[in-house]
Structure formats: C-alpha cells, structure tokens
Hints:
Elements: H1 5-8, H2 19-35, H3 39-46, H4 50-62, H5 68-77, H6 82-85, H7 102-133, H8 140-149, H9 160-175, H10 180-187, H11 191-198, H12 206-215, H13 228-267
Helix pairs in contact: 2-4, 3-5, 7-8, 9-13
Amino acid sequence: MSKKPKETQANTKLFKDGLLYRNISATLTEQCKRIGITPTTLSKLSGIHTSTIKYFRTSQKTGKPFSVGTFFGLAKALQLDFDHVLPPHGGALEPFPPPLTQEDVDSLAVAAKALETSKPDLLRLMKTLSEMGKPTNPAIEETAAVFAAESGFKVPGSLEILIMIGRRVRSLRIVRGLGRSELRGISGVPFSSIFAIEAGLQNPSMQTLYQLAEALQAPISFFFKTDPETEKDQIDLERRAASIIACGQISSVNEMLSTVEYLFRTASGTSPFESS
C-alpha cells in the first residue's frame, strides 16, 4: 500500500511521538519561568484562557497537539523569534517571485478602483438573473442575496492570526499555480480544511500548517511573522495572486456576456429569424 502524503513529507519526523509539540511547549514554558510569568499573567498578555495555557504546558510531557492560534498568541506575548522557535519543515524551499514593479502596483490599484466602481452593476445583474430564474426556481433570490452580502461578511469571533494565515496560504497557493485539490494531493490536508483555513474559519494544528508550508515550499515562520518585511511579502503575493485570478476570469466573463445575450434573445421572445 502506497504511503499517504502526510507520511512521506519531510516534516513527518518532526511530529513523531509528538516531538515538536513537546519541544515547543518546553521552550515556551522555560521562557515563562526564566522571566517569571505565571499562567494567569500570560493569559492576560496573550488573551488565551488559562485552561488552554495549562493544557499547552502539559504537552511538553504528553506531546499532545495544539493549534496555531494558541502557539502564535503565546509566542507573541513572550516576544519570541519564530525563526528560532520553529524548526524548518525539512522540505524544499522555493523563493518568492521578485516584487512587482511600482508601475505594476499602480496599474493594479487603478484596475481595483474600476472593479469597485463596476461592482454595483454586477450586483444588479445578479438580481436580474435571479428574477429571470424565478419561474423555474423560486428560491434563487436567496442565493443572490448571499453574493450581495459577501463584501460585508466577517467571520464572527475570528482570530486575526487565522485570517492572516489564511490569506498567506491562499495567495501563495495561487502564485505557486496550485488548485486546492492539487494542494490536498501534495500536502495530505483535506480539501475542506484547506478551504476553511484559507477563509480564516479553521484554527489548524501545528502539524497541519507544517504540511501546507512544506507543500507550498515556504518557510514555516512566514505564516507567523508580522515584521514589516514579511508583511511586504504578503502584500506582494496577494497582488500577484489577484492578477493571476483576473487572468483566469476573462474567459468566464466572456462566457457570461454571451449567456446574457442568449437570455435576452430567448426570454424576450425575439424571433429567431430576426436580424440583430
């Protein structure tokens, strides 16, 4: 029987018998002792519940997994260097593409502004299509409402770190030329989890993020660091991903315009023999 991606990745050895969880827990716990911070004080500094902190501290003996949200909150509160705390996943690394030129950045900004201006027209088109679909599907209006509300949607109680990680995973996946199904095949992380992580809806385990980092050929620390240089990398990757997505949507928009023309001719009862 062939091994699963999770078993063949280089980072697998880091998690054997919970070794990485043990080491991280021991490192952070030792730092607390060194500077005299109690779990109660750490809870106030990090915003993480004391019961979660106590569970985290027992992991140095049990090797039980903990989430990226817990790790980030504690490491950030203790002002630890992510590059020093987190060992590399052991897989191949591919440098990020060179930054976009200022001309490219300016061009994207202008295009984004135009896209925002045209959004009301797209929403009106969505409403029109919903009205057209009512005779055969009365519930379709509710579907349109979901799209209309999407721009104002915010995940209730979502952690900023999860949103940040999700944005970095998604943009890097797109820049690497991978679909979610392809990333699933390489990393062994379920499709549904990848989707939820990218949306900032899931607080994955450290091992899951290591699997994604190795599959995306990026340093694990990239997903946690908040220094100006890393933030610049994130912004550039997101701009590049936006450009890639836009290229992929051109054919879809062309097909949509052809469909709208067809709908106008058929729904309005235009004679098939009438010249345009």
